[in-house]
Amino acid sequence: MTLLQVMPDDDADRVLLRTRDASRIADVLRGLGVEYGRWDVRAEVLPDTTQDELLAHYRGEVDALCARDGLVLVDVAQLRPAPGPEWAERAAKARAAFLEEHRHAEDEVRFFAHGTGCFYLHLEQAVHAVVCEAGDLLSVPAGTRHWFDMGPCPDFAAIRFFKEEDGWVGDFTGDPIARSFPRLDSLLDGDR
pTM higher than 0.90, yes or no? Predict the structure, then answer.
């Protein structure tokens, strides 16, 4: 189930809010201009599930969202564990690419069809860590400072939506803030 943990941007150890209540999460994020919703999980995503197969499972929702928001490009970002050192190296490199604060020129819209990932939204002197799981749809407004953690052993499939071909390009802020906040695995350990 999705998790929202809010911390002051100058004190990562102080938790202002921690909830798994989907309605509360939606309300808090809506108040910040961030869209959060849920789609029914339609199928198990296997390691060999292709992008076309995954998109076919969600064709109705994908088409409706694209029409509503003027989104024209759709693809799938997927990382699944595999044996061997090559995968571990690839996973570490992919994880590191998004762990620094950045922003985008357009909304960052993601639907998690499988697995888990955490968006850290730096808004209003706070960091809102949103752990997304299968079924979660998150739309981060253009210009929002944020970072993303896919965890030490990435295992997720997310449908990505864009208005422009270069909409995914990150504008890195150079602020080291992300290094001070708990990573995805630490956030989830708080439930144990």
Answer: yes
